[in-house]
Write a structure and sequence with these properties.
Helix content is 39%, strand content 23%. The protein starts with 7 loop residues before the first strand and ends with a helix. It has 397 residues and is an alpha+beta fold. A five-stranded antiparallel beta sheet has the order 5-4-8-7-6, with helices on both faces. The chain has a five-stranded mixed beta sheet with strand order 10-12-13-15-14, with helices on one face. Strands 1-2-3 form a three-stranded mixed beta sheet.
């Protein structure tokens, strides 16, 4: 830091002001003042301090003059690139070694960017070095202005990130392999579910017992529902949050095509007011909706009434939410308050609701039946939390 008269510096400062550019090469004045006002009696100590600061930096560092010649280099530079002091100091950076520093990207950085910007960070280049091989370097440049002379120098630090980039490429390759294996597994699972469903359907057609036939048909529908959920999730990006609106709409379209078709005058509607879920949560929500929709279609309309409707609704009042499946079927006749034993479907729904940290609520009357899955965050109780509106459920009544 060639100092003309007096140099005042502060450790940790972002800008350094100097008198002459030939620092470490010229004699120092009789007094050197540090940022705390303390004077160095021996100027050689100041010079040693300046070089020690450069050598302390772990990454290779070059100090370049206005002609891009090396004023000094850090100890890390010499050890990293296997060069000697006499082969570096005073030479143009492009002439160092066997010309391996004559890099187009480095020329662009030093001749076009650095002169116009005080700081240039994270400029990445790749180059072959005789002692190191192919390396990826991250260059950081800082311009230092000398107030008295008007000259400038450039501090150029060089960080070897070859190992980091190799690990990043390895991780990227592993993620691609994982994605391919996941897609292959999903494909095999889909095929296996279709085979199982076909076997169950064939068996249901051959058995003589009506009760066994009904059980096999129920199992067939449940396997198809799992296959439908798997198919919907397969179209989503791995690890991405699932948009519940489009997810439940596609799921219900699949259910309507397999359960209703043109045979029964029942409408299956979806009313979702925003919301996303993780893939695991979406699986549980999809299974709940499938179970409740199948149950409503099978049992709520024994006479195939023409205005039959099943509504799947999702309401969000963050952090709380409510999922409901409503129908305007037979429900529970007035005066009939006798509880019924929970079936397999109810047991499955309650178990899935528990996985979602939610509770199940069933309302049945002469106007139909509504099953709600209600999640209330731990910090909010039903008394003090945000109330969940009931307009969506009312539309199904």
């Amino acid at each position: 830091m060639g100092l003309g008269a007096t140099w005042v510096g502060q450790l940790g400062a972002c800008e350094v002001s100097m008198a002459t550019p030939n620092w470490l090469a010229r004699s120092f004045p009789a007094t050197l003042t540090a940022g705390n006002g303390q004077a160095f009696a021996d100027i050689d100590e100041g010079r040693a301090l300046a070089q020690a600061i450069v050598d302390t930096i772990r990454e290779p560092l070059l100090v370049l003059d206005k002609d891009l010649r090396v004023v000094t280099a850090s100890r890390a530079f010499y050890s990293t690139f296997g060069m000697k002091c006499q082969d570096v100091q005073g030479r143009a950076i492009y002439a160092l070694g066997e010309g391996q520093w004559d890099i187009p990207e480095l020329r662009y950085l030093l001749e076009n960017i650095a002169p116009h910007h005080a700081v240039m960070e994270a400029f990445e280049v790749e180059q072959d070095f005789p002692a190191l091989g192919r390396r990826t370097m991250l260059l950081n440049a800082r311009k230092v202005f000398y107030e008295r002379s008007g000259h400038t120098t450039i501090l150029l630090s060089i960080e070897d990130i070859t190992g980091r980039r190799a690990k990043e490429r390895e991780l990227s390759d592993l993620l691609q392999q994982k994605e391919m294996l996941l897609q292959e597994m999903q494909h095999r699972v889909a095929n296996s579910l279709q085979i199982i469903a076909s076997i169950l359907l064939l068996k249901a057609r051959t058995v003589r017992s009506e009760e066994t036939r009904l059980h096999l048909q129920d199992a067939h529908q449940r396997v198809l529902s799992v296959a439908a959920i798997q198919q919907q999730l397969q179209t989503s990006d791995s690890g991405a949050m699932i948009e519940l609106g489009s997810y439940l709409s596609r799921l219900c379209q699949t259910l309507a095509a397999s359960m209703i078709g043109d045979r029964r005058p029942i409408a299956l509607k979806v009313d979702v007011q925003g919301g996303t879920a993780s893939s695991s949560q979406a699986v549980s929500i999809g299974l709940i909706v499938t179970e409740l929709v199948i149950n409503a279609i099978k049992h709520a309309f024994p006479d195939d009434r023409k205005d039959g409707a099943v509504v799947v609704a999702y309401e969000l009042a963050a952090p709380n939410w409510r999922l409901s499946v409503s129908d305007n079927g037979i429900g529970r006749p007035e005066g009939d308050s006798e509880p019924t034993a929970p079936g397999l479907g109810t047991t499955i729904v309650e178990a899935l609701a528990k996985q979602l940290e939610a509770r199940t609520e069933i309302v049945a009357n002469a106007h139909g039946r509504t099953v709600s899955i209600i999640h209330v965050a731990a910090a909010h109780t039903p008394e003090c939390g945000h109330p969940v509106r009931e307009e969506t459920l009312a539309r199904a009544q």
